[in-house]
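Please review the protein record below. Tell me whether the encoded fold seems credible here:
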Amino acid sequence: MCGIVGLFLKDKALEPQLGALLTDMLITMTDRGPDSAGIAIYGGNENDGEAKLTVQSDNADADLQTLAADLGTAIDAKVSMTRNDSHAVLSLPAEKANAARAAVRELRPGMRVMSDGDTIEIYKEVGLPKDVAARFDISSMAGTHGIGHTRMATESAVTTEGAHPFSTGADQCLVHNGSLSNHNSLRRKLQREGVRIESMNDTEVGAAYLTWKMREGASLGEALESSLNDLDGFFTFVVGTKDGFGVVRDPIACKPAVMAETDQYVAFGSEYRALVNLPGIEDAKVWEPEPATVYFWNH
């Protein structure tokens, strides 16, 4: 049992409140997942020609001290860094993003790359949602859309690595409530296809599957449609891309989900109570997503 929240803003006037709205939604879902929590924020303020890498370290004071300079030397490019507790956001030329990921592994073997892309930043750690959100000051963050997750571990250890969201492609991420039964065989297949998978968590395999399908030319909606045939198990997925937000439930749909839409936003929650403090919720169209049905919105 885990908790998922998501918010896709249509109204630019709400963008400064994105982090605050998501934080409230996430904390409301605490009893569905007190082990760890994470949020992906799509900033919407992309810099032409620049990419962002969000990294995390359990030994941040030592690992982050000279990281920007060391990475800049390794990839022969200007790198700037903004630290946020155990995480940091590295800004660098977009064409150097893949080289930077590889260089981080060489320079700091214990460091994890949480995400990379033009707009995405992912923050996740072990702990109660309210503590994780406060640790990174999520409520102060602005953006166009975002998704969050509170985890109750069932199939792997309670670690930062096992927390959601998972990102396996540029500006892509996934949160998941459920369990995939064919993740081991699918992991091997995707790794042979060159898709990066860095944990034993089944959710990361789901994220990698969608990355692979989109790399092969599928849209987000088409990738989600294919997942209904290729992924075994029970799942509710909420997916983020650079300009989009998608939802799908497996054909049995035993994991709870509710959505709301107004002229200002589209929102997702594992339960309705995650949505009750959103502006204008009393006038929203509210519904339960249908089984085996793909929903997606994009800017």
About this structure: The chain is about 25% helix and 30% strand. The chain has two domains: 3-44+124-298, 46-118. Residues 187 and 234 are 17 Å apart (CA to CA).
